[in-house]
Every structure is written in structure tokens, then in C-alpha cells.
Specification:
This protein has 77 residues and is mainly α. The chain has one domain. The protein contains four helices and no strands. It is flat.
Length: 77
């Protein structure tokens, strides 16, 4: 079995590590950690003028609490 999981450094906690261990049904397994400095989500999202404009507008809507969508957890589960 082989699986790839992408996790940010701040999210890779001891608790997450223990949860990963429970997914493996054998005693011998390998966890490989790779540092990817070439992939910057912010840079990618800001790469086009239209995307940049949409992101700035979304941030402003959040800050002013205008046109937000409310979702009930009952509708998700």
C-alpha cells in the first residue's frame, strides 16, 4: 500500500502522526517527509489580475461581514 498526504508544517502535529499510525495495519511502515519550497499557494492565487481582484474583494467582504454565506452543520452532515 502506498499513500501520499500533503500537510503544512504547522498542521503536522504529534496527534496527526498518531492518527496516521492507526491507519497502518502493520508494525513496519515508512513516513517520508519532503520539503517543497517551490510551491507557494499565495503566489499562485495572485498570479492573475482577475484572481487577485476576487481574492481582495473576498477578504474585504469577510472583514466587513457583508455578503457572507452561513452554512448549518446539520446541512453538511
Amino acid at each position: 500500500m502506498q499513500a501520499s498526504i500533503r500537510v503544512s508544517g504547522e498542521d503536522f502535529t504529534y496527534d496527526l502522526f498518531n492518527k496516521l499510525k492507526t491507519l497502518v495495519d502493520c508494525k513496519n511502515f515508512l513516513i517520508k517527509i519532503e520539503v517543497d519550497e517551490s510551491h507557494d499557494e499565495t503566489e499562485y492565487l495572485m498570479s492573475s489580475d482577475e484572481n487577485h481582484k476576487n481574492l481582495i474583494e473576498a477578504i474585504e467582504r469577510i472583514q466587513t461581514k457583508e455578503n457572507l454565506v452561513t452554512v448549518s452543520m446539520d446541512n453538511i452532515l
